Amino acid sequence: MRDDLKEVLLDEAEIEGICKDLGAKITEAYAGKPLVCIGILKGSVMFMTDLIKHIDTHLAIDFMDVSSYHGGTESTGEVQILKDLSASIEGKDLLIIEDILETGTTLKSITELLESRKVNSLEIVTLLDKPNRRKADIEAKYVGQKIPDEFVVGYGLDYAEKYRNLPFIGTLKPEIYSK
Ligand code: IMP
Ligand code: MG
Question: What's the whole-model pTM score?
């Protein structure tokens, strides 16, 4: 599997540093208020488990599964809800946890849907941000790392469902895409 990689963009220590830093900022922002952390499946799972260890307030977790990519590396602009939340979020303070913000189509649809459920507040934390790719009018309040417009895998992020188990973020050799 590791032979498919071109380079490492963020190693394990850098990711751990980002989680600590974001966790401290979020802890300070909520100042003891309870919150609901919503992980967007499946890409955010590793980031979510590491990040919430560094958030020092009472929190609940829930998950939502949406699909905007259909196995390739380009967004189709469509978002399909595959799994909805398991509990009511009315009146709650929500923190959406995402792996990567690219065109913003996915998060735009999710935030519009969740805001319509009368939440008290809604913020977004994303590990990675590709600002040059943005199409929808949306930004994350908390960003781990801005990256250039390149397809990345690892630490939850996949290419055709592979590479999610890598403990770091990296790029793939071009020949992997042309297979
Ligand atoms: P957006 O709707 O274009 O912002 O796409 C966001 C979603 O696309 C993310 O949650 C990822 O699942 C996926 N995605 C975007 N860029 C990458 C990437 O470089 N590698 C892997 N998945 C990506
Ligand atoms: Mg995702």
Answer: 0.94
The minimum-distance atom of ligand 1 relative to the CA of 105 is 2
Domains in the chain (CATH in brackets) are 12-147 (3.40.50.2020)
User: How far is the C-alpha of 17 from the C-alpha of 22, rounded, in Å?
Assistant: 9
Diameter of the chain measured on Cα atoms: 50
Q: Specify the ligand 1 atom closest to the Cα of 44.
A: 10
Is residue 14 annotated as part of the catalytic site, yes or no? no
What does the alpha-carbon distance between residue 19 and residue 72 come to, in Å, rounded to a whole number?
A: 28
Q: Show pLDDT as tens, one digit a residue, over the chain (179 residues).
A: 999 999 999 999 999 999 999 999 999 999 989 999 999 999 999 999 999 999 999 999 999 998 765 555 555 455 678 999 999 999 999 999 999 999 998 899 899 999 999 999 999 999 999 999 999 999 999 999 999 999 999 999 999 999 999 999 999 999 999 87
Does any ligand 1 atom lie closer than 6 A to the CB of residue 106? yes
